[in-house]
Amino acid sequence: MDFLPLFHNLEGRHVLIVGGGAVALRKASLLVTVGAKLNVIAEHIKPELIELLANHKGSYAEQAYQSIALNKYVLVIVATNNPQLNKQIADQARQSNVAVNVVDNLQLSSVIFPAIIDRSPIMIAVSTGGGSPVLARLLRTKLESLLPNNYAKLAMLAKKFRDKVKSHFSYPEQRRIFWEKILQGPVAEQALAGQLQQAEQQLQNLLDNYQDTSPQGEVYLIGAGPGDPDLLTFKALRLMQQADVILYDRLITPAILKLCRRDAEHIYVGKKRNQYALPQEEINNLLVSLAKEGKRVARLKGGDPFIFGRGSEEIASLAELQIPFQVVPGITAASGCAAYAGIPLTHRDYAQSVRFVTGHLQDNNIDLPWQELVTPGQTIVFYMGLVGLPIICQKLIEFGRDASTPIALIAQGTTVSQVVYTGILASFASQIANVEIHAPTLLIVGEVVQLRAQLAWFNKN
Fold first, then answer.
1. Percent of the chain as helix, strand, coil, to the nearest 5
2. Has this prediction a pTM greater than 0.85?
3. Domain total for the chain?
4. What residues are annotated to the active site?
5. In a domain, 277, yes or no
6. Which of these, 2, 63, 70, 115, could form a disulfide with 126 (CB 3.0-4.6 Å)?
7. 191-228: per-residue pLDDT in tens?
8. 127 within domain boundaries
9. Quick one: pLDDT at residue 215?
């Protein structure tokens, strides 16, 4: 981040505006809404700005700016057409440790104005770091359409009951869960419909009849997809925002982790080949112990948790102990990576079926039903097949697959680092032997791979 977003209380605080034109008027009109005490200095001041200052007990001096002590101001806004004067004032403000905004000059500004969605007491600020104010305004317009004005009433209702709820519950987690149910349930619907009296009464009834018991834990087994955060489901996002603790694998990208609740605890439990942050049994036990503590635990797994993800092993321990859990399917790597690479897994003319297998190497061998994998008209997708690639190619040819069958290797699929290599079974292992390839990878074998060339417009690489 280039700028840290903060909400500044300017009630009764002194703000200086240097400039008296349309831009100064626009800034002043915003500042008086939050109770700032304005002082304007400019050689020429628009009559509308003078009237605004008079109506809000501001002051002005219609004169050229002369260096003055800036210590009494918490914010200085510079809105003149004189670049030298703008720099002079900005330098003086910085030397006085006073926040300064020079309109349309990011380099001279220590603070910038965002585009604002005002649903007081809800405030949403949108900024592009000064890079594109027009884009910020367009984003604000989109957000405005998603937030009815009555969200302000819902926020005021929550504020009114905040202390009551806080005193009613012994555990912070319990308060959070209570508010999540309120703000996503019938009480919220009533407030948004403008039925505030009914909403308040229902909220009071729910609070009066709510039993203060130890919070109950729950586990969310979430398929986080193959890497691109845009492929997460709505349900996955919702539960990631509710979770108190996040257990995540090696394949979970930083962009996905950023979508989790900011104050949640993060625990890495990833695995590499022959390397384990935690053995599987310890992961199972950790899920159980955290849930018993009353925590809501999001277990993030790459792709889909039930496709080579050992998800069933993890929830088996929970089911045995009757610990509540939810399973959220994810887009598996085969589907996501193939689509982003422009390779259809099935095609009327080339493949009428698709098979997912693991190419995991064990004791320098891959034990698979090779005879079934060479059946014509099917696509074979190998998970975890990079190390065993030479054996995979050799076995497929040995059991009858044509040596000229197309094959693709997709590395870091669906992410900005995605790379796709294509070739044929006979020579592919030697073709990429000296290429530096970064996991995760996926192998696709079948005639459908040749369609990638026809779908070049779609390809990411």
1. 35, 20, 40
2. no
3. 4
4. 249, 271
5. yes
6. 115
7. 988 899 999 999 999 998 877 666 678 999 999 999 99
8. no
9. 67
